[in-house]
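User: Can you help me understand a structure? I only have the sequence.
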Amino acid sequence: MSAPTATGRCLCGAVRYELRGELRGILVCHCVECRRYHGTSGAYTSVAREALALQDPEGLLRWFPGPQSVTNGERGFCSRCGSSLLWREPESSTYSVAAGTLDGATGLRIEQHIWDEQRADWELDDGLPRVARGS
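Assistant: Let's start by predicting it. Here is the structure, written out as tokens:
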């Protein structure tokens, strides 16, 4: 198996992961679900499903559906510390990975903002492309 492209973990360290494939640049999601889930907009990279290797020896990763999701997405979090780790759509070939859970420098940069129509009025405009709804 190849060396990880990136690693990450939840706040308490109980759920860890390795990403062993190409990572997409960061998308910042301003939808009301992400803002409520993260306390601010969600920043995500993504990786092919088969490139994600979870290390969850205590079985603490839990999934729940977004309450208003227009995409039928599910959010993965650590049931011990509550850290938001992953987002997935049932039919998608990728996982979205919460960028704030990545370890160390990644070289990734924000590429785009999505669900900008739901952006909070206090969030700064950085001049990057903005899409009213999902990408």
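Now, to help you interpret it: The chain has a mean pLDDT of 89. Residues 6-118 form a domain with the Metal Binding Protein, Guanine Nucleotide Exchange Factor; Chain A fold (CATH 2.170.150.70). Let me know which part you'd like to focus on.
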